[in-house]
Amino acid sequence: MKILRALIKKEFFQITRDPSSIIIAFILPLISILIYMYGINLDTVKVTMGIKNDDANPEVTTLVKSFGHSKYVNSIVYDNEDELAEAIIRSRLKGAVIIPNDFSTKISRGQTGEILIITDGSEVNTANYVQNYSMQIVNQWLMTGKYGGLAKKQIINPVMRVWYNQDLNSHYFILPGSIAITMTLIGILLTALVVAREWERGTMEAILSTSVRKIDIVLGKYIPYFVLGMLSMAFNVFMCVVVFKVPFRGSILMLFTVSGLFLFTSLGIGLLISSILKNQFLASQVSLGIAFLPALLLSGLMFPINSMPVFFQWLTRILPPRYFITFIESEFMAGTVWEIVIINSVFLTVLGLILFAAVYKKTDMRLVK
C-alpha cells in the first residue's frame, strides 16, 4: 500500500503540473456543454410506435395497417394499455397512438373524432416526428378511405400527450447526453497518453528499477484519473442541473454509480491503447479513431441508432457510450428505470473487468522483451 500511495501521489503531482489534464477535464467539458446547449439541433428518420385500437370498425383497422405501411414508422400493435405504457417507459417505443371505441361512430355522424397521441419527450425531435408522422398517416387515411368527403372538415382532433419533457426542450436530453461524450474524452483520450508518455520521457525506466509491482502500476494509473473523471462528472452535472436548469428525476447515487462503471470501462480502453502503442501521437490518433469519434457519432446522441444501416446498428452494441447515454438520458428525464440500469450496469461491469485484465497483461515490467 505504501508503494501504491506513492505512485498515486506521483500521478496527482503529474496531473497538477500538466495543464493539458486540467484543460481536458474541465475546460473542454465546459466548451462542449456550451456547444451542445447553443449549437446542436438534431433530426431523425424512423420511429418505433405502439398502436392500440379500441374501435372494432373494420374501416378503422385499415388505419392501424396504415401505420405499418409507412416507411417512417415501425408500428407494434398492443391490446393492453398497461403494456403499451410500460414499453414507452422502458424506451422500447418512442410514441403511441390510441384510438377510442367511439372514433368511427363520431366520424360517421360528422362529429369530431379524437385520437390520443403519446410521445416520449425525452427526445424532443423524435417526439415532434411522432406527432407529425401520426397526423400525416391519419390525414392520408381519411382522404383515401370511405370518409374522404369529410377530409376537409377537420373532423379528427389529435389529443397530444408528451411524457417526461412537456416543454419539448431539446437541451433537456442533449446536455445529459453530452456528459457521456465528456466522460469518454476524459476516460479514453486522456489516459491513452499516460503510459505512452511515461515511456517517451523515460520515467517508466525509473519506476521499473524500484520494487514496484505490476498491480501497483496499473492501479496507480486507474485511481488518479478515476478521481479526476468523477470530479469532472460532478462538475458537468452541476452545470446541467444548477446552471442550465435541466430537470433531474433520478437518483444521484445511481447516477454516480453507473457513471463510475462507465468511467472504469473508458479508462481501460485508454490505458490499453497506451500500453500497446507506447507512443503519444499514435495513441491519441487511435483513441480518436476507434473510441472518441464512434462515441460521438454512433452512440445515438447525434444520430438515431434505428436510422443507421443494420451493420452499424449491430456495431453500436459493443460501444460503451451507447449504454451510458441510454442510462443517463433516462435517469435525467424519466427517473430510475431498473431494467435500463441493470442491463447497462452488467455490460459496463463485464467489459470494464475484461479491459482491466487486458491492461494488466499488457503492462510491461521489462525494458527489453
What features would you describe in this structure?
The model has no long low-confidence stretch (mean pLDDT 79). This protein has two domains: 232 residues, no CATH class; 117 residues, abc type-2 transporter like fold. A five-stranded mixed beta sheet has the order 2-1-3-4-5, with helices on both faces. By secondary structure, it is of the alpha/beta class. It has 15 helices and five strands. The two termini are 28 Å apart.
Q: Number of DSSP helices?
A: 15
What fraction of residues sit in β-strands?
5-15%
Structural class: alpha/beta
Overall pLDDT level: 79
Write down the oligomeric state.
single chain
Number of strands: 5
Distance between the termini: 28 Å
Q: Which sequence of strands runs across the widest sheet? A: 2-1-3-4-5
Largest sheet: 5 strands, mixed
Please indicate the count of domains.
2
Radius of gyration: 25 Å
Overall geometric form = elongated
Helix content: 55-70%
